[in-house]
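Weekly modeling sync, notes
Attendees: S.R. (lead), two postdocs, one rotation student

Agenda item 3: backlog of single-chain predictions. S.R. asked that every request posted to the team notebook include the full sequence so nobody has to chase files. The rotation student volunteered to paste the first one in as an example of the format we agreed on. Action items at the bottom.

Example entry:
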Amino acid sequence: METRPIRAALSIPVVRALRKLGHDIRNARRRRRIPMAMLAERASISRMTLSKIEKGDAGVYVGNYAMVLFALGLVERLAGIADAAGDTVGRELEEEKLPERIRLPRSPTKGPPKSGGQ
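Predicted structure, as returned to the notebook:
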C-alpha cells in the first residue's frame, strides 16, 4: 500500500493565491508563446512539475516556482513580495510602539567658565 505524506490543511486564501499565481504564470508563458516543454527545460524542471505549478499546486518546491519566474523574466517581482514598503500592517504595528517624546540625554552640569588668570 502506497503512503502519501500528510500535508497540513491550507487555508482558502492560500489556496486561492497559489491558484492565481499558477494561472498568472500560465498566462505569462502563453503571452510569450513559449511551449511548456521549452519553459520546463529553461527552468530546469520537468514538464509535469511545470503543469503542477500552473495549477497552483502547494506541494511544489518554492524554488521551482522561482525558477519558472526567472525563466519568464519575472523573478524581480518575487523579491518584493514581503517588502517592508508594502507591509502596511507591520508598519502600523511598529508605529504604535514609537515613543511619544524623544529627549536628549542630560549632560553633567558645568559651572561658570573659569577665567584664565595670568
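Discussion: group reviewed the output briefly. The helical segments are 12-31, 36-42, 47-55, 62-72, 75-79, 88-96.
Action items: rotation student to repeat for the remaining queue; S.R. to check formatting next week.
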